Amino acid sequence: MTSSSPNSASPVPSPRDAGAGRGLGRGVASTSLARRLRKNQTPEEKQLWLALKAGRFAGFKFRRQHIVGKYYLDFYCPVAKLSVELDGFQHGLPEQQRHDEARKVFLQKNGIEELRFWNGRWNRNRAGVLLEIWNALHRRTGCVAVMRKTENHRFIPPNPDKLIPSPAKPKQR
C-alpha cells in the first residue's frame, strides 16, 4: 500500500494505552462493558451482525463493540479502518449529537471512517445499507472481495458496470 492509503495513518489507540481494563474507573472503555453490549444488542444490530460476521460480507472481517480509545464501535473492519453504527432515537437528542460529533472527530484523527445509519433506514432498506457499506470498503481498500473463508461469503459485491452507467461518449465530427 502507498503512504496515502487510509490504513497507513497512525495505529489505532488501544484502550490499554489509556489505562482501561477491569475496574479502572468511570469513563474508560472496558472489555467487560463491551461484552455486555455484545450480549444486549438491539434487534437491528443482531440482524446486521448476521450479515457481517464470520467473513460473510465479501470476506471482510468485522468486530462487534470494538474499543477504540474511550469509544465502542458497533461494527469495525480493521482492514479498511471502517466503523459502522446503527443509531436509535437517542442519537437525535442534542447531548448525544455533541457526543457523536466529538467521537467522529476522534475517529477521523485516527484514520477511521464512520458510517452511521438510523435503525429505521436499516429496517426499510437493508440492501441499500449493505451496498453503502460495501462501497465504503471498496473505496478504502480497493478490494472487491477478500478471498478468505469463501465458503462463508453471503454478500456478493455487485458488478460496478451495472450500478453506474458509463458516461456517454462525445460524438466525434
Overview of the molecule:
The chain is of the alpha+beta class and 173 residues long. It has a single domain, classed as Endonuclease, Chain A. Helix content is 35%, strand content 14%. It is built from six helices and four strands; from the N terminus they run ααβββαβααα. Strands 1-2-3-4 form a four-stranded mixed sheet, sandwiched between helices.
Share of helix, binned: 25-40%
Class per helix and strand makeup: alpha+beta
Task: Tell me, rounded to a whole number, the average pLDDT.
Answer: 78
> How many separate helices?
6
Please state roughly what percent of the residues sit in beta strands, choosing from under 5%, 5-15%, 15-25%, 25-35%, 35-45% or over 45%. 5-15%
Strand order, sheet with most strands: 1-2-3-4
Largest sheet data: 4 strands, mixed
CATH homologous superfamily title: VSR Endonuclease
Distance linking N and C termini: 43 Å
Overall shape: it is: globular
CATH topology: Endonuclease, Chain A
* N-to-C series of helices and strands: HHEEEHEHHH
Radius of gyration: 18 Å
CATH architecture descriptor text: 3-Layer(aba) Sandwich
Low-confidence stretches: 1-5, 18-27
User: Given this structure, which CATH class is correct?
Assistant: Alpha Beta
Q: Quickly count the domains.
A: 1
What is the total tally of β strands? Answer: 4
